[in-house]
Amino acid sequence: MTTATAMTDPRPVEPVRIGIVSISDRASTGVYADQGVPALQDWLSRALINPLHFEPRLIPDERETIARTLRELVDDARCDLVLTTGGTGPAPRDVTPEATLDVADREMPGFGEQMRQISLHFVPTAILSRQVAVIRGRSLIINLPGQPKAIAETLGGHPAAKGIFAAVPYCIDLIGGPYLETRDEVCAAFRPKSAQRPARQG
């Protein structure tokens, strides 16, 4: 009689390049300290097992500046994932979604829909948010809220609403990026069985 042994993945964990763009007129001019970049770096460092290389940017709410920064992060810095924070409301200076669509090859509307559903569990003004997500080349770009608490809620979810990051690793698989591995206690990635690799030991 033999005992089945669970398979483990012998391959090294793939490194991931992540662009983080905090978009704020006042933070970019030093009126107050930026909170978006540190909040995202902290959450991603806790959620992902992969070695991470961050490309942080702090820029004003200028449509062409935002679009140029996103192109640079994808085309030159070769980021696999780009996350923006700020500039997604209805105010005249909130132009992050327009700039993101300017650089898109394809739109991924499900991310924006789910982000608003998550935020509606906390504030009724979530319906004013205009976040979008797009694919450019082999990179996924997602607009996130501006507040650190809202960033964590949107990425990780709520008991009544799944966080968006659970779908990010498989999306990046499908567009030809690295295999993102998450810590289940922070955010359990979902992949169909056919796309899952053997469990990693330890």
Outline of the structure:
The chain is of the alpha/beta class and about 200 residues long. It has seven helices and eight strands, in the order E-H-H-E-H-E-H-E-H-E-E-H-E-E-H. The strands form two sheets. Strands 2-1-3-6-5-4 form a six-stranded mixed sheet, sandwiched between helices. Strands 7-8 form a two-stranded antiparallel ribbon.
Please give a structural write-up:
The protein has 202 residues and is α/β, with parallel strands linked by helices. The protein is built from 7 helices and 8 strands, in the order βααβαβαβαββαββα. The strands form 2 sheets. It has a 6-stranded mixed β-sheet with strand order 2-1-3-6-5-4, sandwiched between helices. The protein starts with 15 loop residues before the first strand and ends in a 28-residue tail after the last helix.
What's the SSE blueprint?
Elements: E1 16-23, H1 25-28, H2 36-47, E2 52-59, H3 63-76, E3 81-85, H4 96-102, E4 106-107, H5 109-120, E5 133-136, E6 139-144, H6 148-156, E7 157-158, E8 161-162, H7 168-174
Parallel strand pairs: 1-2, 1-3, 3-6
Antiparallel strand pairs: 4-5, 5-6, 7-8
Features:
202 residues, alpha/beta, two-stranded antiparallel ribbon, 7 helices, globular
User: How many DSSP H or I helices?
Assistant: 7
Total number of beta strands:
8
Strand-pairing-aware structural class: alpha/beta
- Strands in their spatial order, largest beta sheet: 2-1-3-6-5-4
Report the radius of gyration as a whole number of Å: 17 Å
The rough form would be described as globular
Q: Mind summarizing the main beta sheet? A: 6 strands, mixed
From the N-terminal CA to the C-terminal CA, the straight-line distance is 27 Å
**Chain-averaged pLDDT:** 92
Measured as a percent range, the helix fraction is 25-40%
